[in-house]
Amino acid sequence: MSMTLGLHTLALVLYAATAALLGWSLARSAQRAPLVAAGALAAGVAAHATALGSYWTAFREPPLVGLAPSLSTLALLIALGSFLLAAVGRSGPLGLVLVPVAALLGAIAQAAGLRPTGPELAYRGPWFILHVTLAFVGYAGLTIAFAAGLMYLLQFRQLKGKRFGAVFRFFPPLDTLDRIGVRALLTGLPALTAALLLGWAWSHRFGPAMHAGNPKVVWGVVTWLAFVASLLARAGNATHARRAALTTVIGFAVVVAAYVVLRAAEAAGAGFL
């Protein structure tokens, strides 16, 4: 357990260093800072993945049940997405939004205690792991789309005001941000849809069936609707990109608010994330 906590703490430190380096690059136009930040982020993702692997080994349970393990896994997927954008798409500046989100989720998980806290599950095994992993891929996709949308709106405002400062030089071009946002939505929506269908099919087959007011169901449907609204806002030509970015940012805020409300209203010890 000490290994898990140590590696998890190291990952958080590396995420914080990544965010600081990206912020320094934005403020000072430091050319090498993004490369160093990418290296720190890669090390953080590796430490984080190893920490969760150690958790799985120690407790013989995937880190997908309970508040702390689930948030940590989601944080890892978001950080991994940020790294892939930096390495493959040369869109490392999105880490200015994504890495702090991952660090915040990881810090909450650390504070809550990285240990099994959820109730005994009615079912386990590959289908459960696939169901939760697909759901987390969906939420990570929405988070990436949110980051791209937020940066799109910020840069659009700068360009509209004819201010070609640090934001203009550091942020990816508007068409790149739009493309990343759309691809993240198109990746996340099928993953979340499959997760919802898997959960419904399993509960319907083996019971007890989940009722419409179940917090997991409500949050999943709210998130699914946020995806659909964002994609519908983008439908058509590229002139709808700003509208789609705004819809995505608002949708993400609604999803986060829905989670907070549902989590607060859920009974103590229940299995909601």
Structural descriptors:
mainly alpha, about 270 residues, 9 helices
Folded structure, characterized:
With about 270 residues, the chain is mainly alpha-helical. Helix content is about 75%, strand content about 0%. It has nine helices and no strands. Helix 2 packs antiparallel against helix 3. It is globular.
Mean pLDDT: 87
How far apart are the first and last residues' alpha carbons, in Å? 22 Å
Low-confidence segments:
none
Given helix and strand content, the structural type is mainly alpha
State the helix count: 9
Shape: globular
Offer a concise description of the structure.
This protein has 273 residues and is mainly α.
SSE arrangement:
Blueprint: H1 2-28, H2 33-59, H3 67-87, H4 95-112, H5 126-160, H6 166-170, H7 174-206, H8 215-234, H9 241-265
Helix pairs in contact: 1-2, 1-4, 2-3, 3-4, 3-5, 5-7, 5-9, 7-8, 8-9
